[in-house]
Amino acid sequence: MKLAFLGLGVMGYPMAGHLAKAGHDVTVYNRSTAKAEAWTKEYRGQHRASPAEAAEDAAIVFMCVGNDDDVRAIALGPRGAFAGMKPGAILADHTTASAEVARELEREAKGKGLGFLDAPVSGGQAGAVNGRLTVMVGGAEASFRTAEPVMRHYGQAVTLMGPAGSGQLTKMVNQIMLAGLIEGLAEGLNFAMRAGLDASQVAAVIAKGAAQSWQLENRAPTMIEGKFDFGFAVDWMRKDLGICLAEARRNKSALPVAALVDQFYARIQERGGTRWDTSSLIHLLAKP
Are residues 64 and 207 in the same domain? Predict the structure, then answer.
Protein backbone atom coordinates (compact mmCIF):
# COMPACT_ATOMS: atom_id res chain seq x y z
CA MET A 1 0.00 0.00 0.00
CA LYS A 2 1.17 3.54 -0.67
CA LEU A 3 1.37 5.36 2.67
CA ALA A 4 2.63 8.63 4.12
CA PHE A 5 3.87 9.35 7.62
CA LEU A 6 4.09 12.92 8.92
CA GLY A 7 6.24 13.54 12.00
CA LEU A 8 9.36 11.53 12.81
CA GLY A 9 9.82 12.12 16.52
CA VAL A 10 10.69 9.45 19.07
CA MET A 11 7.39 7.71 18.31
CA GLY A 12 6.82 8.45 14.63
CA TYR A 13 10.31 7.47 13.45
CA PRO A 14 10.06 3.79 14.51
CA MET A 15 6.33 3.58 13.69
CA ALA A 16 6.99 4.66 10.10
CA GLY A 17 9.89 2.22 10.05
CA HIS A 18 7.59 -0.70 10.87
CA LEU A 19 5.40 0.22 7.90
CA ALA A 20 8.39 0.28 5.56
CA LYS A 21 9.75 -3.01 6.93
CA ALA A 22 6.35 -4.58 6.28
CA GLY A 23 6.77 -3.80 2.57
CA HIS A 24 4.61 -0.70 2.21
CA ASP A 25 5.68 2.19 -0.01
CA VAL A 26 6.19 4.93 2.60
CA THR A 27 6.81 8.63 2.00
CA VAL A 28 7.68 10.70 5.07
CA TYR A 29 7.66 14.35 6.06
CA ASN A 30 9.38 15.96 9.03
CA ARG A 31 9.95 19.61 9.84
CA SER A 32 13.62 18.78 10.33
CA THR A 33 14.83 17.62 6.93
CA ALA A 34 17.86 15.96 8.50
CA LYS A 35 15.61 13.56 10.42
CA ALA A 36 13.67 12.73 7.25
CA GLU A 37 16.90 12.08 5.37
CA ALA A 38 18.16 9.81 8.15
CA TRP A 39 14.89 7.85 8.06
CA THR A 40 15.00 7.37 4.28
CA LYS A 41 18.59 6.21 4.50
CA GLU A 42 17.66 3.64 7.15
CA TYR A 43 14.40 2.41 5.64
CA ARG A 44 14.81 3.20 1.92
CA GLY A 45 11.61 5.20 1.63
CA GLN A 46 11.34 8.73 0.31
CA HIS A 47 10.74 12.12 1.91
CA ARG A 48 9.05 15.28 0.70
CA ALA A 49 9.32 18.97 1.56
CA SER A 50 5.71 19.45 2.69
CA PRO A 51 2.86 17.39 4.17
CA ALA A 52 0.83 17.95 1.00
CA GLU A 53 3.57 16.52 -1.22
CA ALA A 54 4.12 13.55 1.08
CA ALA A 55 0.39 12.80 1.13
CA GLU A 56 -0.06 12.73 -2.66
CA ASP A 57 -1.43 9.39 -3.86
CA ALA A 58 -1.25 7.85 -0.35
CA ALA A 59 -4.16 5.61 0.59
CA ILE A 60 -3.54 6.36 4.28
CA VAL A 61 -1.65 9.30 5.75
CA PHE A 62 -0.41 8.78 9.31
CA MET A 63 0.52 11.71 11.53
CA CYS A 64 2.26 11.91 14.90
CA VAL A 65 3.14 15.45 16.00
CA GLY A 66 3.12 17.49 19.20
CA ASN A 67 -0.16 19.21 20.07
CA ASP A 68 -3.40 20.68 18.71
CA ASP A 69 -1.65 23.57 16.98
CA ASP A 70 0.77 21.19 15.27
CA VAL A 71 -2.11 18.97 14.16
CA ARG A 72 -3.92 21.91 12.59
CA ALA A 73 -0.77 23.20 10.89
CA ILE A 74 0.25 19.83 9.45
CA ALA A 75 -3.26 18.80 8.36
CA LEU A 76 -4.99 22.07 7.46
CA GLY A 77 -2.22 24.47 6.43
CA PRO A 78 -1.84 25.71 2.84
CA ARG A 79 0.68 22.93 2.26
CA GLY A 80 -0.95 20.60 4.75
CA ALA A 81 -1.91 16.98 4.30
CA PHE A 82 -5.51 17.63 3.27
CA ALA A 83 -4.28 19.81 0.40
CA GLY A 84 -2.47 16.86 -1.15
CA MET A 85 -4.72 13.91 -0.33
CA LYS A 86 -6.90 12.31 -2.98
CA PRO A 87 -10.64 11.67 -2.40
CA GLY A 88 -11.19 8.48 -0.42
CA ALA A 89 -7.83 8.65 1.35
CA ILE A 90 -7.70 8.46 5.15
CA LEU A 91 -5.79 10.63 7.63
CA ALA A 92 -4.99 8.72 10.84
CA ASP A 93 -3.70 11.02 13.58
CA HIS A 94 -1.57 9.33 16.26
CA THR A 95 -0.92 12.61 18.09
CA THR A 96 -2.19 12.85 21.66
CA ALA A 97 -4.41 15.90 21.21
CA SER A 98 -7.86 17.14 22.21
CA ALA A 99 -11.13 15.50 21.25
CA GLU A 100 -12.16 18.93 19.99
CA VAL A 101 -9.45 19.06 17.33
CA ALA A 102 -10.26 15.47 16.32
CA ARG A 103 -13.87 16.42 15.65
CA GLU A 104 -12.73 19.53 13.79
CA LEU A 105 -10.50 17.49 11.48
CA GLU A 106 -13.23 14.96 10.85
CA ARG A 107 -15.58 17.73 9.72
CA GLU A 108 -12.90 19.12 7.41
CA ALA A 109 -12.12 15.65 6.07
CA LYS A 110 -15.77 14.89 5.29
CA GLY A 111 -16.06 18.14 3.36
CA LYS A 112 -13.16 17.05 1.16
CA GLY A 113 -14.32 13.47 0.63
CA LEU A 114 -11.65 12.10 2.98
CA GLY A 115 -11.67 9.77 5.96
CA PHE A 116 -10.31 10.71 9.38
CA LEU A 117 -9.33 8.71 12.47
CA ASP A 118 -8.02 10.03 15.78
CA ALA A 119 -5.73 7.25 16.97
CA PRO A 120 -3.52 8.19 19.93
CA VAL A 121 -1.17 5.51 21.22
CA SER A 122 0.14 4.25 24.53
CA GLY A 123 3.29 2.26 25.18
CA GLY A 124 6.01 4.88 24.97
CA GLN A 125 9.13 4.88 22.86
CA ALA A 126 9.88 1.25 23.73
CA GLY A 127 6.43 0.24 22.52
CA ALA A 128 6.95 2.13 19.26
CA VAL A 129 10.37 0.57 18.67
CA ASN A 130 9.15 -2.94 19.49
CA GLY A 131 5.84 -2.64 17.62
CA ARG A 132 3.87 -3.17 20.84
CA LEU A 133 1.72 -0.05 21.05
CA THR A 134 -1.89 0.18 22.16
CA VAL A 135 -3.87 2.22 19.62
CA MET A 136 -7.16 3.85 20.71
CA VAL A 137 -9.19 4.88 17.69
CA GLY A 138 -12.13 7.20 17.04
CA GLY A 139 -13.91 7.58 13.72
CA ALA A 140 -16.03 5.83 11.12
CA GLU A 141 -15.95 2.04 11.08
CA ALA A 142 -15.26 1.88 7.33
CA SER A 143 -12.11 3.98 7.69
CA PHE A 144 -11.07 1.94 10.71
CA ARG A 145 -11.42 -1.35 8.84
CA THR A 146 -9.10 -0.06 6.13
CA ALA A 147 -6.47 1.33 8.51
CA GLU A 148 -6.57 -1.26 11.29
CA PRO A 149 -4.49 -4.00 9.61
CA VAL A 150 -1.85 -1.42 8.69
CA MET A 151 -1.72 -0.05 12.26
CA ARG A 152 -1.12 -3.59 13.49
CA HIS A 153 2.42 -3.39 12.15
CA TYR A 154 3.21 -1.35 15.29
CA GLY A 155 0.13 -1.92 17.44
CA GLN A 156 -0.41 -4.99 19.57
CA ALA A 157 -3.95 -3.79 20.29
CA VAL A 158 -5.87 -1.59 17.84
CA THR A 159 -9.43 -0.86 18.96
CA LEU A 160 -12.24 1.31 17.63
CA MET A 161 -13.67 3.15 20.64
CA GLY A 162 -16.47 5.10 18.96
CA PRO A 163 -17.00 8.18 16.76
CA ALA A 164 -14.41 10.88 16.14
CA GLY A 165 -12.85 12.09 19.38
CA SER A 166 -13.35 8.76 21.16
CA GLY A 167 -9.73 7.75 20.68
CA GLN A 168 -8.54 10.98 22.28
CA LEU A 169 -11.01 10.65 25.15
CA THR A 170 -9.78 7.10 25.81
CA LYS A 171 -6.17 8.31 25.84
CA MET A 172 -7.20 10.94 28.40
CA VAL A 173 -8.50 8.14 30.64
CA ASN A 174 -5.13 6.42 30.22
CA GLN A 175 -3.21 9.53 31.28
CA ILE A 176 -5.53 10.26 34.22
CA MET A 177 -4.98 6.74 35.56
CA LEU A 178 -1.26 6.89 34.84
CA ALA A 179 -0.80 10.11 36.81
CA GLY A 180 -2.26 8.62 39.96
CA LEU A 181 -0.43 5.34 39.49
CA ILE A 182 3.00 6.95 39.16
CA GLU A 183 2.42 9.17 42.20
CA GLY A 184 1.35 6.14 44.23
CA LEU A 185 4.44 4.24 43.09
CA ALA A 186 6.70 7.19 44.00
CA GLU A 187 5.16 7.52 47.45
CA GLY A 188 5.36 3.78 48.12
CA LEU A 189 9.01 3.44 47.07
CA ASN A 190 10.04 6.55 48.99
CA PHE A 191 8.23 5.18 52.07
CA ALA A 192 10.02 1.83 51.70
CA MET A 193 13.45 3.47 51.53
CA ARG A 194 12.79 5.76 54.50
CA ALA A 195 11.48 2.81 56.50
CA GLY A 196 14.82 1.03 56.02
CA LEU A 197 13.52 -1.65 53.67
CA ASP A 198 15.31 -2.94 50.59
CA ALA A 199 13.18 -1.05 48.06
CA SER A 200 14.22 -3.32 45.18
CA GLN A 201 13.11 -6.38 47.11
CA VAL A 202 9.86 -4.66 48.06
CA ALA A 203 9.17 -3.85 44.42
CA ALA A 204 9.91 -7.42 43.35
CA VAL A 205 7.54 -8.85 45.97
CA ILE A 206 4.71 -6.38 45.32
CA ALA A 207 4.97 -7.02 41.57
CA LYS A 208 3.61 -10.51 42.31
CA GLY A 209 0.44 -9.16 43.93
CA ALA A 210 -2.50 -6.83 43.40
CA ALA A 211 -0.34 -3.69 43.02
CA GLN A 212 1.45 -5.08 39.97
CA SER A 213 1.72 -2.69 37.01
CA TRP A 214 3.88 -1.94 33.99
CA GLN A 215 5.21 1.13 35.78
CA LEU A 216 6.19 -0.90 38.84
CA GLU A 217 8.03 -3.53 36.83
CA ASN A 218 9.72 -1.15 34.40
CA ARG A 219 10.27 2.06 36.38
CA ALA A 220 10.78 1.02 40.02
CA PRO A 221 14.48 0.12 39.55
CA THR A 222 15.35 3.47 37.96
CA MET A 223 13.20 5.40 40.43
CA ILE A 224 15.11 3.78 43.29
CA GLU A 225 18.40 4.76 41.62
CA GLY A 226 17.19 8.31 40.91
CA LYS A 227 17.66 7.99 37.14
CA PHE A 228 15.21 9.84 34.90
CA ASP A 229 17.10 10.77 31.70
CA PHE A 230 14.91 8.66 29.39
CA GLY A 231 11.30 7.84 28.64
CA PHE A 232 8.15 9.98 28.41
CA ALA A 233 9.09 13.57 29.20
CA VAL A 234 7.47 15.61 31.97
CA ASP A 235 6.75 18.39 29.45
CA TRP A 236 4.64 16.01 27.39
CA MET A 237 2.83 14.63 30.42
CA ARG A 238 1.88 18.16 31.49
CA LYS A 239 0.59 18.80 27.97
CA ASP A 240 -1.53 15.66 28.18
CA LEU A 241 -2.83 16.43 31.66
CA GLY A 242 -3.73 19.93 30.49
CA ILE A 243 -5.89 18.35 27.79
CA CYS A 244 -7.50 16.06 30.38
CA LEU A 245 -8.25 18.91 32.78
CA ALA A 246 -9.71 21.07 30.00
CA GLU A 247 -12.00 18.23 28.89
CA ALA A 248 -13.01 17.61 32.52
CA ARG A 249 -14.13 21.21 32.81
CA ARG A 250 -16.29 20.69 29.73
CA ASN A 251 -17.91 17.44 30.87
CA LYS A 252 -17.96 18.43 34.57
CA SER A 253 -15.75 15.53 35.73
CA ALA A 254 -13.85 15.80 39.01
CA LEU A 255 -10.11 15.10 38.60
CA PRO A 256 -8.63 16.04 42.00
CA VAL A 257 -5.71 13.58 41.86
CA ALA A 258 -4.82 14.41 38.24
CA ALA A 259 -4.90 18.14 39.05
CA LEU A 260 -2.62 17.61 42.06
CA VAL A 261 -0.15 15.46 40.14
CA ASP A 262 -0.10 18.05 37.36
CA GLN A 263 1.13 20.58 39.93
CA PHE A 264 3.76 18.13 41.14
CA TYR A 265 5.02 17.89 37.58
CA ALA A 266 5.13 21.69 37.46
CA ARG A 267 7.53 21.53 40.42
CA ILE A 268 9.67 18.98 38.55
CA GLN A 269 9.85 21.43 35.65
CA GLU A 270 11.00 24.14 38.05
CA ARG A 271 13.83 21.80 39.11
CA GLY A 272 15.00 21.57 35.51
CA GLY A 273 13.38 18.21 34.84
CA THR A 274 11.40 19.21 31.78
CA ARG A 275 12.81 16.27 29.81
CA TRP A 276 12.98 13.82 32.71
CA ASP A 277 10.83 10.71 32.57
CA THR A 278 7.44 10.94 34.28
CA SER A 279 8.71 8.60 37.01
CA SER A 280 10.71 11.58 38.33
CA LEU A 281 7.83 12.35 40.72
CA ILE A 282 9.86 10.47 43.32
CA HIS A 283 12.49 13.22 43.12
CA LEU A 284 10.13 15.58 44.99
CA LEU A 285 9.83 13.07 47.82
CA ALA A 286 13.47 11.95 47.95
CA LYS A 287 14.76 15.53 47.87
CA PRO A 288 11.97 17.77 49.25
Answer: no
Per-residue pLDDT tens over the stretch 86-116: 999 999 999 999 999 999 999 999 999 999 9
Domains identified in the chain, total number = 2
Q: Is 189 exposed, middle or buried (0-12, 13-18, 19+ CB in 10 A)?
A: buried
Q: Do 115 and 181 have their domain in common?
A: no
Whether residue 29 is found in the same domain as residue 143: yes
Tell me how many degrees the CA angle 256-260-266 measures, rounded to the nearest 5. 150
Active site residue ranges: 171
16 lies in the same domain as 131: yes
- Phi and psi dihedrals of 5, rounded to 5? -135, 125
Domain that residue 259 falls in: 170-286
